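Exercise (ungraded).
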Amino acid sequence: MNRRLVLSAGAAPLAMAAFAQGADAGNAGPVQAGNCTERDDRPNIIFFLVDDMGWQDTSVPFWNQKTRYNELYETPNMERLAAQGMLFTQAYASSVSSPSRCSMMTGANAARHRVTNWTLEKGVPTDMESDVLELPEWNCNGIAQVPGTANTFVAKSFVQYLKDSGYHTIHCGKAHWGAIDTPGESPYHFGFEVNIAGHAAGGLASYLGESRYGHDKGGNPTSLMSIPGLEKYWDTDTFATEALTLEAIKALDKAKKYNQPFYLYMSHYAIHIPIEKDNRFFRKYKAKGMSDKEAAYATLIEGMDKSLGDLMDWLEENGEADNTIIIFMGDNGGYATGEYWRDEPLYTQNSPLKCGKGSAYEGGIREPMIVFWPGVTEPGSRCDSYILAEDIYPSVLDMAGVRYDDAPQHIDGRSFVPLLNGAGDPSEGRNLYWNFPNLWGETGPGIGSTCTVRSGDWKLIYFYESGKKELYNIPDDIGEENDLAQERPDIVKKLSKELGKYLRKAGAQRPSFKATGMPCPWPDEI
Amino acid sequence: MNRRLVLSAGAAPLAMAAFAQGADAGNAGPVQAGNCTERDDRPNIIFFLVDDMGWQDTSVPFWNQKTRYNELYETPNMERLAAQGMLFTQAYASSVSSPSRCSMMTGANAARHRVTNWTLEKGVPTDMESDVLELPEWNCNGIAQVPGTANTFVAKSFVQYLKDSGYHTIHCGKAHWGAIDTPGESPYHFGFEVNIAGHAAGGLASYLGESRYGHDKGGNPTSLMSIPGLEKYWDTDTFATEALTLEAIKALDKAKKYNQPFYLYMSHYAIHIPIEKDNRFFRKYKAKGMSDKEAAYATLIEGMDKSLGDLMDWLEENGEADNTIIIFMGDNGGYATGEYWRDEPLYTQNSPLKCGKGSAYEGGIREPMIVFWPGVTEPGSRCDSYILAEDIYPSVLDMAGVRYDDAPQHIDGRSFVPLLNGAGDPSEGRNLYWNFPNLWGETGPGIGSTCTVRSGDWKLIYFYESGKKELYNIPDDIGEENDLAQERPDIVKKLSKELGKYLRKAGAQRPSFKATGMPCPWPDEI
């Protein structure tokens, strides 16, 4: 199922030279003191992460055929990026935001970092209450680079490594790494030198400048999700997505003057709820016959896509397009569980994938992903190898030529650079693991306390509460309609064993039964 | 001339235990990954730096007698701090701001870092033009932690070390490390996690909230010196010194929640020009018969002192007073050269010291300094050993127990911790060096292109343009009235040799003569 790419003879030397130089710069230890004006010509890196974006929320087909959603939504700049770079058809993340983002930032699997549900307030787990399950004491305070806070995973971020090695590091948009009043609430804590609008919250009060992004007339936040730092756009008609883009471009203008390679984390609040309409695009989608809600959703997508295009334009206009890697990705599946925000039938918004955000099914965890590395990725190429959110960490550091041997945490992620340059396939023989010993809060197929393994074509989901196991052959059955657990007990047994072994080794947590006080069995204990 | 302090038996164990623990934490390498809630109980550190504060701009006598200025000015909180800690009578810095601040931040002597005059705009030296001297191409862009910018000294800051070792790092007020549009313009570049109102500029447009600290009604800065980040105090009567203090205290409230030791760099824009009156204190000084200008100057001092007291109050109210080191210092001599701002006779405002800011005489370089380390410094003690601005770097890291062996730059500074705890005297047998191959812009005694050495009681000043050398016995002649160069050619020769040797070894720069194109001789070449 994996496709290999062979670099064209022309492209390889350029890219490899850039990479080798990067590697030298990164591994040479501390910078030379004194007056050194030599330019560090490692590539710039833009990580463009979209919140709650479904696999089908784009006009770019990530499946083997163009779907109805691909026809409805318009993302011309994703198409432009895909035409230049490599499209990943099997990129995975966790089913909710914090686990994905903490894995990206630390390289650790969610089973290990234990930030398994979404974070917000210090010491306050966000799980739904259950009569049956007692949930474990997970890391509801998120991650930090220092000890001292309970329920926090301590790790060194890849951004800190980038900064230490000489990158100028810019955060723009949603952060969501540490709970309010913990060190990890601030992007500056993790090595960013610029923070535009990032804080503890994983959502937003409003996209509307007219609503001051969630501030009252006195300038006070009306919610824990009010977007900070965009005061200059208050009382204008600037949609948050546009405001963030304008600010990101200002930061890039500054970065250009610094004569350093830059890392821009363009982390949109879009397309998270509230699904407010972006008037720049609304009429177009209404004209397609979409409902108000669905048309508004489409405008969130296209506004995000315009942001991508604006950044690509900036790179071209500033002579940086040939030396900038762009990684486009989503952090979890598209929202598909509430009638308040969506009009399509529940659980179908990521079709052909099953369910959406919060679910262990593909709709919850499969992400749109495109990587463009000038001179390295073959234009318009596709890659069917699977990767997981935690792979961002080693991949970005690999791209920048920075070693991370002294990271205090174990890195579960694997660099996907070999997939980009055709040097190999890190997913061969590798299982992907998920652990969600939590209760998200909404209900739907695959939403519950689960752990999951993907191994080659097979995927096993284990439900902690019921003890049920489901087995799917993903390439044959992307919609997870045919549970093969009864037919293939051999594979169920094998994967249960591998999953259980990994979880215990990684220090994963599991729920208990309130009735007995006993922990739910691991998947290989039942 | 040096006084030793012996720790009382009661105080020592507490302090040493704290320090040893700090040392362990700092030297243990990367933090442990995972869930670690153990509190890092190294001491908090507040570095309270006042801009352009003269040695006599306080009611605390730093000389061997109380002067007229000590009687005029009221700094009750400096008195309170001095009663708890150790007062340094011979603390030195450079004669202008940037060299001092860059030395503090890098540990390098100004001769080495070459940021020898004040910085502001990228690539634009701020020196006065001369018909006689061609000035060297000094580092007019300041310092940075990365290469890539011309005329920049590359070094790793002690703040970065503090942050990396687990301190929460807060910048409040004047930064002034890198020119506009260079990486060093931002405190975040140097490892700060919070930045309140710091940027490239070394001065301020206005102290007045009514003037929006130098912003017009449209919110645009009216000057490169407009203070950023204090928008919430615009159009109020909040003096900048007070606004900074209020924001610093908010940052401390937050730091307390983080459960980390904190480093607060409280770097007041006060008492730099413009000498605007702080109405909270103005009438009091008018009642003493002072002129409007001199009374306004006195209010800048007392406003700064109130800030110190507010921080000390916060520490006491929050149970952090016993675990917080406070270092109080000025960055260069008091302003004494312009009639526009001061009414006293020119060059007398630092009396008994000669001249002021910009001068090689004591008025330009001798600073008020007090250090309070609970359990370590003997209450109300005085120390006559000399120290220099660059000593801040190793001293703070020493206090925090953080090693800096891998710093890319050479550290000229020496830790003054042995002076605090009575373990030794790092100034014994040590010379202090200054190099100012620049022209500041104003005129007065000792203001010009000079280099200087202090060696024991002796001080030699060499004027590059004239070749003149002056020699003073400082303890005997603090006002530098009796030039002993003719009487003691032996000492002149010895110190000239040591000064010339050091400057060449440190890679110091010197001016040239425009007429001949020849460099000015080093002090030991003439």
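Further reading is listed at the end of the chapter. For now, observe: DSSP finds 13 helices and 16 strands in chain A. Residues 292-317 of chain A form the longest helix (26 residues).
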